[in-house]
Structure formats: structure tokens, C-alpha cells
Amino acid sequence: MDTRLTAEQDEIRRTLRELLRKRCGPAEVRAAVDTPAGHDPLLWPALAGRLGLPGLALPERYGGVGCSVTELALACEEVGRALAPSPLLATSVLAAPLVLALGTEEQRAGLLPRIAAGTLTAALAVPGPALTTALALTCGNDTYSAGGGRAGGVQARRAEGDWRLYGEAAQVLDGHSAGLLLVPAHTGGFARSRTLLFLVPGDAAGLTRTRQAALDATRPQGRVQLRDACAELLGSADTDVRPALTALGDTVAAVLAAEAVGAADRILERTVEYAGQREQFGRPIGSFQAVKHRLADVYVEVQAARSAAYYAAWAARQGQRAGGLALAQGLQALRRAAAEGIQLHGGIGFTWEHDAHLYFKRAAGDELLFGPVHRLRDRAAETAGLFAGGEVAV
């Protein structure tokens, strides 16, 4: 593995950091999350037009840039530094790869160029509490099902040659604003029970969407309700979506790990800067040995998480799986950096108005959606066969 970044990768990071510094400061983030969509509607076209960010990891034949997971992870690291609220995670990390992997050629040609151009956003309509199961992050998804009745899931049935969906999914990332929904739905009854993926346009009849309150407002969530909504099957009825979701899960974990590292690195920078300015007993608090030790411990943890995230992105490109452990490391580093940031900022750090709380909420919200850390590690150990037969494998 070559850990050096290429000139192209450095340029992606530099350009994106410069753009986000101008367009996505703390004041802009707070203003964006208060909009109905939960993100700045002008930022997404800017990211698409200048960097091609929505299609960064999509093939060139579908209008994408043709980069790999590594470049997408590096871009998300910069997005994480700014906590930029955008459709990037829901559209480019969760939804677009499934269309690419499972869709027919006609579906790919019709949807992916619009996603790459930034004119179409998408969301995977898996309820927040079921996301880690569907993506096989904390346990296997062999038993994953989108069913559960009208109140507990989404059902699909054939009617006059069309597919009709009914049910609901709550806490869907960008579910309230995405232009296209990828909806897992249960079909086949008890005898031929299976989960399929369906495409539902955001303006489809029978679709009702509302934004929900979320701990981390920079990751807006919505409730999706379907009442006999007409849908298009993604791929074919014989497709088993679970292997595709498992493969997607590792890529998502690697990208999220990089994003968490970016957020942790930024809050650490801000804390170090503040520690050099705030004085007690006539000297900056950053000169006290105890404070130095605490910041040094966070620095080491952030750098270790960065190494793990970069390796996971490289491994995903090689068809290997290391995303779960990298995500656990990244979430732990972000939680530690955010907690220390609040502590070392003193009284001002404990007010909700301080920006440190945005990072703390991101750490807590990501653990709720994609963790917790100990379950990510447990799943990684299970996958590696470390505890096969109840004993440590040698």
C-alpha cells in the first residue's frame, strides 16, 4: 500500500477545503440546517459544477469522474471537517452505488448521469434503526427484511402489471427532500418472502414525506409514508439485494470513517488554538502539562483513526473489507476529540451555542446511526473468525 497521496488527490482536498471555507463556515452551517431541506441548496450545485463531487466515484460512461473509493473518502474527510450539510452521504455514498450495482442498463443510463451532474438527489429509504443491520455493519443481514406490516415496514404487491408500495420508514437520511427514493420493500408473502429494491420519484402519487427532528441537525432525516404508491423495480425480481447491501456497507463504513476523522481533526485544531489563547494564572492553559497530555492523547487517537480510514478506503478498492474497524476507530476518535473540546473550552464550551456541540452531536448521532463502536468491533471480529467456536482462533 502506497500511503502517499497523488497530485490529483491533493488537488481534490485543497480545492474542496477552499470552497467549504468560503461557503460553509459555522454561521452558514447553522443557517443551512434551519432550511426546510436541511442543507444549502446553492452549495450542492457548486460542489457538482466545480468538483464533480456527486459523481466522483461513478464511471465516466455515466457522467462521473471515474475515481475510486479513496478519492470519495478524501472528499468526505473535508466535508466532515466543515460538518457541511449536503446530500453527499445519502446520494453518492448510499444510493448511487446501489443503482450502479443492481440497476438495469436503462436505469443506470437514466439516473446516474443526473446524479453525477447534481440535478438529482437520492436517498436509501431504510429506517435509521435498521441501517446498520441492512448494511451488515454490526451483524449479518441474512435475516434483514423490509417487511413488518403497514406500521412497521414497507410491503410491495403487483397490481395491474405495476408495483405498488405501502408502509412507512422513519429516520431516513435526506428522506424528506431527495428527488429519488430507493425503497426496500417486502414481497412474496410468507412462502416466497424476499426483499427487493424499488425506485420511487420524490413527487410520486401516494408518497408523503415530513422532516423529523434529529440529534445531529447536520444529518437531516425524514419520515417516508407510502400509500399505494407506484414504484419501479430496481434490477430484476430475481436479484438478491443483501449481498449488494453488505458490499455497500463496507464502502460506507470506510467513507464515514474518513468523514469522522475530518471532523475530529477540525475540533482538535480549534481546541488547540483556544488553549493557546485562554489564560489562567497569567499563562495560556495550553502551557499546562496536564492540558498538553490530554491534547496529545487526542492527537494520537486522531492520527491512528486517519491511518485506519485511509487503509479501509484502499482495501475497499482492492475488494478487501476493513471498513467496520476503521469506522469504530473514527467514531471513537471523534467522540474523544469533541468531549475534550467541550471540556477545555471551559464555560463557553458547555453552551449549546458553541460550535463544539455541533461536533459532539455529530459523534453521538453517527454512533446511533452506524454504531455503536463496540458492536462494530464485535462484527469485525466475527467476520474475521477470531472467536470461532467460542475460542480465540490461532
Tell me the CATH architecture of the largest domain: Up-down Bundle
Residue windows where pLDDT falls under 50 for at least 5 positions:
none
Task: Tell me the radius of gyration.
Answer: 21 Å
Broad structural category: alpha+beta
The span between the termini is: 26 Å
As for the number of domains, it is: 3
- Global mean pLDDT: 90
What percentage of the residues does DSSP assign to strands (E)?
Answer: 15-25%
What is the molecular shape? globular
Helix count from the secondary structure assignment: 12
The percent of residues in helical segments reads 40-55%
The name of the CATH superfamily of the largest domain reads Butyryl-CoA Dehydrogenase, subunit A, domain 3
| Biggest β-sheet strands, sense, barrel | 7 strands, mixed
The H/E string reads: HHHHHHEHEEEEEEHEEHHHH
> Could you name the CATH class of the largest domain?
Mainly Alpha
Which fold name is given in CATH as the topology of the largest domain?
A: Butyryl-CoA Dehydrogenase, subunit A, domain 3
Number of strands: 9
Keywords: FAD, Flavoprotein, Oxidoreductase
GO molecular function: oxidoreductase activity
Family: Belongs to the acyl-CoA dehydrogenase family.
Cofactor: FAD
Short précis:
The chain has helices at 7-23, 26-33, 43-51, 69-82, 88-102, 105-117, 131-134, 241-275, 289-317, 323-344, 356-370, 373-384; strands at residues 122-124, 154-159, 162-173, 180-187, 194-201, 207-212, 221-233, 279-280, 283-284. The chain is α+β, with helices and mostly antiparallel strands and 394 residues long.
